[in-house]
Amino acid sequence: MALTLANNNFEVNIHPVALFNIVHAYERRSEKFDTILGTLLGTRAADSIEVFDSFVVPHSTHNDALYNVDYASTMASFYRKVNSTQTTVGWYSTGSDMISGANLIHEYYTHETRNPVYLLVDTSLKNDSSFQIKAYMGASFGIKDKDRLKSHGIIFTPIPVRIVTYDEEKAATDLFQAGKFNKDFQVKPPSELDQVQSALDKLLLMLNYLTSYVDGIIEGKKPSDPKIGRMLMNLINTVPRVDPKDLENMINTSMNDLLMIQYLSQAVKAQLVLNEKLTST
Amino acid sequence: MASNSAQMNYSSKVGSSSAASTSNPVKEVFVDAMVVLKIIKHAHEETTDNAQGVLLGLVKDATLEVTNCFAFPNQNKPENIDLDLDQYQKDIIRNLRRVNSDYLLVGFYDSSFNPSIAQAMVEYQLSSVEESIALVYDQALAMQGYISLKAYRLTPAALENLKNEDYFSPDNARQANLNFETLFEELPVIFRNSHLVNSLLCEIEEQTRLSSKSNNFLDLGTSGNLERQLRSLIDCVDVFANHAARYTTYQKQLQRQQSRRNQRDSNRRNDGNDEDFDNTTKFYVKSRREALLNGSQINNQCDNITEFAAQGLAKLFMAQAVHEKQ
Prior knowledge:
Chain A: Residues 12-142 form the MPN domain. Chain A: Pfam families: JAB (PF01398), MitMem_reg (PF13012). The complex is a heterodimer. Chain A has helices spanning 16-27, 69-82, 102-112, 167-177, 192-218, 226-237, 244-279; strands spanning 11-14, 37-44, 48-57, 59-61, 65-67, 87-94, 117-121, 133-142, 152-159, 161-163, 186-187. By secondary structure, chain A is α/β, with parallel strands linked by helices. An eight-stranded mixed beta sheet of chain A has the order 9-8-7-6-2-3-1-10. A two-stranded antiparallel sheet of chain A has the order 4-5. Residues 1-6 of chain A have low confidence and may be disordered. By secondary structure, chain B is of the alpha/beta class. Chain B has two domains: 28-203, Cytidine Deaminase, domain 2 (3-Layer(aba) Sandwich), CATH 3.40.140.10; 226-265 and 284-324. In chain B, 52% of the residues lie in helices and 15% in strands. Chain B has nine helices and eight strands. Chain B has helices at 33-45, 85-98, 116-126, 139-143, 156-163, 170-175, 195-208, 223-267, 272-325; strands at 28-31, 52-60, 63-71, 104-110, 133-137, 149-154, 184-187, 189-192. In chain B, helix 8 (223-267) packs antiparallel against helix 9. At the A-B interface, helix 1, strand 3, helix 2, helix 4 and strand 11 of A face helix 1, strand 3, helix 2, helix 4 and helix 6 of B. Strand 11 (186-187) of chain A pairs antiparallel with strand 8 (189-192) of chain B, so a sheet runs across the interface.
C-alpha cells in the first residue's frame, strides 16, 4: 500500500478575488448544472499555497463529468500572459459535498502541477447557513498492480484555509461591507472627507471599547488578564513622546505645505483657463 | 435603450450601425465588487507600467452595469512584444461567453489618467456601446486605504470633434464650446452586489477582521503621495508651456504669412506660399488637440491634488485638536 501523506502543516491562503470569481461564475451557471468547476491560479511556497485568482471551466455531466481540458489550458495561458508568476495550483468546485468525478479531475491537475489543492466552496449555504470554504490535498492510495489496473484512488485530507488580503483589497472589502445593509445593496465610494470621518469613527469606537474595558477591570467587574494588560502598556508606549512645541511646529509646517500646494494647483488651473481664453480667439 | 445586437463584433475597433445619439441616458455606473477587486489585484501586481484592461457588462435603462473585466498583458515586457491585442481580446471574450459571462465591451480601465485615454475612448464610444466609460483607479492612494475609482466619458461634443482627426480647428472647438473642462464628464460610481456575494462578504469579514492595517489611512505622512502627484503635474505643466510657446510661434508665422500674402496679392502672385501656410495650419491644428487633452489632464490632476490636500488638512486639524486636549 503506497500512501503518501501531505505535509502536516500545509495551508492554503486565498485572496478574496478568487472567491468572488467563484461566486460570480456560480451565479451565471446554466440551469442544468448544480455545481461548477474551475481552476485556481496562484503561487506555491514550501508549506503553503497562495491562491490569487480563479476562473471557471465548462464541463458537461453525462454519466461521467467531462472536463474541458482545452479551455482550461488556453485560459491558463492567457492569465499567465498577464502575470507570469501565477500558475495553476489546484481546482475548485461548488456545492456542499465533493463531486463524484473528483478523483479523475484531481488526476488531471496532478499532471499540471505538483501537488494540486482541491477547494470546496459551499455556495448552497446549507451547513448552518455559512459560507464554508474547505481545502483538501490529495494523496493516492490503493494497491498498485503490476498491470496498473485502476484499483487505486485518491484520498482527500483537509487542510486549513485562510483568507489573506492586500491592504487595498482590505480597504475595498471594508467599503463593500457597508453595502450589505443598504436598501438596494448599493454603496458609493465615499468622498475624501467622508473617508476621514469614517476612519475616525472606527478609531473612536475602538478607543471607547478599550476604555470601557479598563474601567470595568478597575471597578472589579471583569477579571483582569495580565496578557491584555501588557498589550495595553505596549500600545500606550507606542505613542511618541514629543515635546509639545516640536509637535506644534511639525503640524504647522505640514499645514503650510498643504495649503501652499493647494494654492499652487489653483494657480495652475487659473492659468489653464486663461490660456484657453487666449488661444481660442 | 437597446444598443447591442446579436451579431456583435468582438473587436472594439469596428464601428457599428447604431445611430449616434447626442444625449446619453446613462447617468450612473454600477460596478460589481468582483470587478473592483480584479482591478486592484492587477494594479498591485503590475509594478512597472499602468494596469490596463477591458470592462464587460451591460446597459440597463439609465445605468451602465459593469459585471466583469479582464486585464491586458503588459506589452512592454519582452515576451509580450508581438502579442496581438485584438486576437487576445477576441479569444478571451469567446471563452468568457461560453461560461455565460457578459461579453459586451462597455469600456476599459486604467490606473492613471493620461491623454491617451481620450483616443481610446473615441474608439470605444464609436463602437456598439455608446455609453462606454473609462474607469480610472489610483493605486498609490489605495495603498493608504482610500479607494478612488472614477468613471469618465467623453461628452458628445468632444466625441464629434475627436472623431474627425483632420477637422479639428479652433473655430470648430469654439463653436462646440469645447474647452478642457467639457472634454470629459464624470459619472457617479456605485458598488452593488448580489445576495450571495453579500453572504461571502460576511464570511470574509469574520476571517479578516483582525488582519488589517486599515488605520494606515489616518497616517499623517502625506509627503510621499504628494510628491508623486506634484511630479506628474510638473511634467504636464512643462508640456503645457511647450504648447503655449508653440501657439505664440504660430501666431507670429501667421502674421508673417498674412503680410507676405498681402504683398504678393498686391503683385498678383500666389503660389507656393499657400502650401506653407496650409502645412503650418495643419501642424498647429494637431497640436491644438494635444493641448486640449493636456489641459484636461492638468485639470484632473489639480482636482486630485486639491482633494488630497483637503484630506491631509482635515487629518492635521484633527491631530492638532487631540494634541491640544492634553
